[in-house]
UniProtKB/TrEMBL annotation, chains A, B:
Pfam families to which the protein is assigned, alphabetical: HGTP_anticodon, tRNA-synt_2b, WHEP-TRS
Domain Aminoacyl-transfer RNA synthetases class-II family profile span(s) in chain numbering: 66-564
Subcellular location: Cell projection, Axon; Cytoplasm
TM annotation in the entry: none
Protein's UniProt keywords contain Cytoplasm: yes
Official protein name in the record: Glycine--tRNA ligase
GO annotations of cellular component type: axon; mitochondrion
Enzyme nomenclature, EC number: 6.1.1.14
Keyword Cytoplasm annotated: yes
Organism in which the protein naturally occurs: Caenorhabditis tropicalis
Classification lineage: Eukaryota, Metazoa, Ecdysozoa, Nematoda, Chromadorea
Family the UniProt entry places it in: Belongs to the class-II aminoacyl-tRNA synthetase family.
Superkingdom classification of source: Eukaryota
Length: 686, 686
């Protein structure tokens, strides 16, 4: 089946396997030490695995993926489509139809189970409307922006980095462009993610890039904030934004959550909800949208101990890692998907404790991998890419994106970041509300306390109503501040207390300095935060691509091979004919499925059974239940179940349906188990 | 237990029962005809039921409801709390903590099952961001507003109707105010819901109402639009709003949904999602918020046939109806809750087909009642109130609010409205996209068609490139328009065709008029829409009030008696002591519960078992599983289950736990069934 191109790619891998096969034979012939032979065997196995996986990854199934066919199916069967289409549509906004809705709901339910329930997380549900000061503190008001260039004549806006990327790619395909310029362009692409406005302006000027639509000149890059602004209340002066992420809602609730967890660290909070980003000119369907569902976890942990109690449970799990040390391969990302896949496989499996910052981050990456596998992402098209240092926020300690390979290239679908204690500190600075946990010290410590106490009788005489305010300001001084106050009182006999810009001259008689020693049992710490952040729409799109199939020998017959767990509808119910005799059988099946809360779709239209199978396969219904004349001939009634992906069928009693399909959906049984247990049914109609 | 006031209210009901008891004895003594005795017995039963329900409704349980205690519990155990509290908070915005989140998720899951799955609805998930033209068409841009008055000095805003209501209520409690003025105030309250700005201004002026905070004068009422405005994209000229309801997303997708349903009527689409309303000055906690989760159904139906196929399934269900014909009792709504309850009960049970507009609306009201019962609303505090004609939108044909009685009075939680074909027509007018379904005619009809066909050869010569445009304009003309065109051509030998304001003079040679008869089999109809619309936050708040209990004899010990179906956590797992011997038992229980996906909370803290029960009762955990020394003495392990509401306990094997509790949660078994099956366990520690 392999094409010459594929063979050319496989040849060096085959040679590499052969090389080690030969070597081992040699070693054995020479009676070499066992340790040398063992080493060679390990290497041989690794090379064989690489060859095998590359063969699978290059198989024609992916190669022949036809995005237009998938998009046609998704639109026609209303998985999702552009919002407000009858009003001309809005780019970057999509509505989910019944199929997409159910797929999404099933993915979210699994996410809730996999993370919130299994890990005992604290779920919260915060508002999208967010007052400006909160997002000022988090840095979004000042920095959550993309660089934008405008057509100087008609004002049309483009995202600067996307414009550069697209313009260079066009240049690459232009035969008239010199090799030197192409090399220059390649170099720009490799470094683009770290570019600021000046770098981009330099590139646009040097390459003489214009508006791709009008050919007009472009402005210098301008920062465009990606948050949607609004106001709360009737006065118009309470500025707010729609949240760009759900995370801040968790941070501002930190105190309540810590209290809910009885003051103990570590704990994780999670939120499933909407995020909003006013993208400059979104394209690429579900991958870049202006309103989206995200699932975020904020795991709060002692910054000095990021070990994870359950780490041993995932310690042996292998992930495809793409650490920044081998990111020199990054510039090769621009090539075709199959080449990219090959490159990634070459990054070898690395046990992540050697490269990932800490156990907690590693644990969440492994759980992320498990989740994506559960919902049906193809493991051969998944990798974890570490951020380059210039990609990460300055406060972040480490960040690994789960990237999924689609026909658009590798797409960031999940971010796994160690954000240190940045967010909690920022909100503390903005509100003066301490966002800390108490950590028990290994042993009590004596600390020296210096306090300034007001002499209220005298203070009241001098400052009247303001005395209270002065007393409170004195109480809030740190030991260091009081020490400096004491020095002033001694040397100058005067201390100027500053309260909100107002100076209050205090003389020594107004203040008593008190010094004592105190035993401290706990220490206040600002927790570090590990943040896994899931973009559900992107994962769903990748899942749709990975599940899309064409029947061999009949490429027009496309279908979606969903995992039963996430399939929008679990069963189709198909009477073999419209004969009234079958009605009792159909009703019995419906009742049995309802009892187990299994969604189904009855297709009693007049098409042939084969055509009806094709129609239900198209929307990814994994199990087709057919009621035929055999079904109702004797009691108990029997039916056949057809497994859409393999088209194989078995026959069983109606009363066994609910439990079996529930088990297949939950993954407690596989289809092969069912085939082993129940008699095969041979159909001539598929 | 009854107070003298309660006895006074019950006395006439007792007398009414006694009257018929006596009557029946008399009739029997006189050997009266059986039919007379039967009639009297029916009446006696009705009177007894009324007495009984009134007794229950007036029982001290509700009377002693303490909102502050409930609010304290909800805050302390983080069901929900004000958003951004560390930033000073925002009125009308609330964050849900782990308990509230889970309660809400369980309610939504049940809603999805009860409506979307059981009724085979088409679920959609549309964006919150909505372009201005969509909401202009729906009427929201022009009319979705509340009247607001401002403090003339400091600009503070008040919702005019709320200000009037609160001011009149204050007046009512003022002993210095004359009876005449009070009567006047009472009259205003009864008519307030139908007031426009002029009516409200008149009342504010007549009663001399001032700002309740400063005592300053107030402005005339100003319309304040309740939608949150924003812009989409970088140019700033694409105006949009956050949707005030999810319904419009369904209407603009009507064509896709009809197609998904293979062109057939009736069908229902549903959406669960956020709604946003910029309330002027929200108070009353979860009842009036600025961002909320709603569940809406749009049931599309032939306007000439609103019968419902499954109507017979609910035809016997009894609802408490409050039709507008007895809305003269409306003015009595202002009295105390227990009096209100009594009034409502007196509205008698009415079989709704006599008062509700059509079967479809009636069906949804009955299903609404079922849903509210399932999640745990107290049926004695639920009524369906029909809108007065001046309350309804002008296009609406009928509207019934499901109102739930809380300590804030009767609260509208669900609207059930027949919106006729208003929305689809409005979007058709705005977009020129036909939003219609085809209805098969009982028999084919012959219609006369008149068409204007362009003579393209000549038209091309005269109009060059514009010929195509003219041809297309001619094709789109209705038969009436062509007839008038023909008349012009005959009389004036000229017809001026207008395309987007441009005139194209057409002479007879350019056009052929074609007339023929056509057999029509279908008719295009704009469907009517029945819309049930659920406010989940309001239902949740009512549910919390209705589930709130105090232990008899220990009023400090409050708890939430949730139905297991919606309880945020299904089980607590409590080791009787910290002894290591119990660990294996605990682990076995956890494993068994996980296998059945039942949420649990282990409380192995050092408190007494009684104190730990109280703590888990407080957050509404319905089942407490205790592991004691007996549990692990022999295999198979056994444990006790304690039913929080009744505090009764049973003992059973660990391996039986999962199935039993799943059944109790799903309502397949009741606690009394479990008590009958398993041995009772007597605890001395509760």
């Amino acid at each position: 089946m392999a094409t010459p191109e594929i063979e050319a790619q496989l040849a060096p891998l085959r040679a590499a396997v052969k090389e080690y096969g030969d070597l081992i034979r040699d070693l054995k012939a020479k009676s070499a030490p066992k340790i040398d032979i063992d080493k060679a065997v390990v290497e041989l196995k690794a090379r064989k695995r690489l060859l095998e996986e590359t063969e699978i990854s290059l198989a024609p199934k992916e190669a022949s993926f036809d995005r237009l066919k998938l998009e046609d199916l998704l639109k026609r069967r209303f998985f999702y489509d552009q919002s407000f289409a009858i009003y001309g549509g809005v780019t970057g906004l999509y509505d989910f139809g019944p199929m997409g809705c159910s797929l999404k709901a099933n993915m979210l339910q699994e996410w809730r189970k996999h993370f919130i329930l299994e890990e005992g997380m604290l779920e919260v549900d915060c508002t999208s409307l967010t007052p400006e000061p909160v997002l000022k503190a988090s840095g979004h008001v000042d920095r959550f922006a993309d660089w934008m260039v405008k057509d100087v004549k008609n004002g049309e806006c483009f995202r600067a980095d996307h414009l550069i990327k697209n313009s260079i790619e066009k240049l690459m395909n232009d035969k008239k462009v010199s090799a030197d310029v192409k090399r220059d362009g390649e170099d720009v692409l490799a470094r683009l993610e770290g570019f600021d406005d000046k770098d981009m302006h330099e590139v646009i000027t040097r390459f003489k890039f214009k508006s791709p639509i009008t050919g007009n000149d472009l402005t210098e890059p301008i920062a465009f904030n990606l948050m949607f602004p609004t106001q709360i209340g009737p006065t118009g002066d309470f500025k707010a934004f729609l949240r760009p992420e759900t995370a801040q809602g968790i941070f501002v609730n930190f105190k309540r959550l810590l209290e809910f967890n009885q003051g103990k660290l570590p704990f994780a909070a999670a939120q499933i909800g909407l995020g909003f980003r006013n993208e400059i000119s979104p394209r690429q369907g579900l991958i870049r949208v202006r309103e989206f569902t995200m699932c975020e976890i904020e795991h709060f942990v002692d910054p000095e101990d990021k070990s994870f109690p359950k780490f041993s449970k995932i310690a042996d799990q292998k992930l495809v890692l793409f650490p920044h040390v081998i990111n020199w391969m990054e510039h090769q990302r621009r090539k075709s998907p199959s080449e990219m896949l090959l490159q990634t496989k070459m990054t070898i499996y690395i046990m992540f404790q050697k490269t990932v910052a800490n156990e907690t981050l590693g644990y969440y990456m492994a759980r992320c991998h498990q989740f994506l596998m559960k919902v049906g992402i193809d493991g051969r098209r998944l990798r974890f890419r570490q951020h380059l240092s210039n990609e990460m926020a300055h406060y972040a300690q480490d960040c690994w994106d789960a990237e999924i390979l689609t026909s658009y290239g590798w797409i960031e679908c999940v971010g796994n970041a160690d954000r240190a204690c940045y967010d909690l500190l920022q909100h503390y600075k903005a509100t003066n509300v301490k966002l800390v946990a108490e950590k028990k010290l290994p042993q009590p410590v004596d600390v020296d306390i210096v306090e300034a106490q007001a002499n209220m009788a005298l203070l009241g005489k001098s400052f009247k109503k303001e005395a209270k305010k002065i007393q409170s300001a004195l109480q809030q001084m740190t030991s260091e501040q009081v020490t400096s106050l004491e020095a002033d009182l001694l040397s100058k006999k005067l201390f100027n207390l500053n309260i909100n810009g107002e100076a209050y001259p205090l003389t020594p008689d107004l203040i008593n300095i008190k010094k004592y020693s105190k035993k401290i049992h706990v220490q206040e710490i600002t927790p570090s935060v590990i943040e896994p952040s899931y973009g559900i729409g992107r994962i769903m799109y990748a899942l749709l691509e990975h599940s899309f199939r064409q029947r061999e020998g009949d490429e027009q017959r496309t279908f979606l091979a969903f995992k039963p767990l996430v399939a929008p509808i679990k069963c189709s119910v198909l009477p073999i004919s419209a004969n009234d005799q079958l009605v009792a059988g159909i009703e019995a099946v419906k009742e049995e499925l309802s009892r187990y809360e299994l969604s189904y779709k009855v297709d009693d239209s007049s098409g042939t059974i084969g055509r009806r199978y094709a129609r239900t396969d198209e929307i990814g219904i994994p199990f087709g239940i057919t009621v035929d004349f055999e079904s109702v001939k004797t009691t108990p009634y029997t039916v056949t179940i057809r497994h859409a992906e393999t088209m194989s069928q078995i026959r069983l009693e109606v009363s066994e349906l609910g439990r079996l399909i529930s088990d297949l959906v939950a993954g407690r049984q596989q289809w092969t188990d069912a085939q082993a247990k129940y008699p095969k049914f041979e159909s001539t109609t598929d």
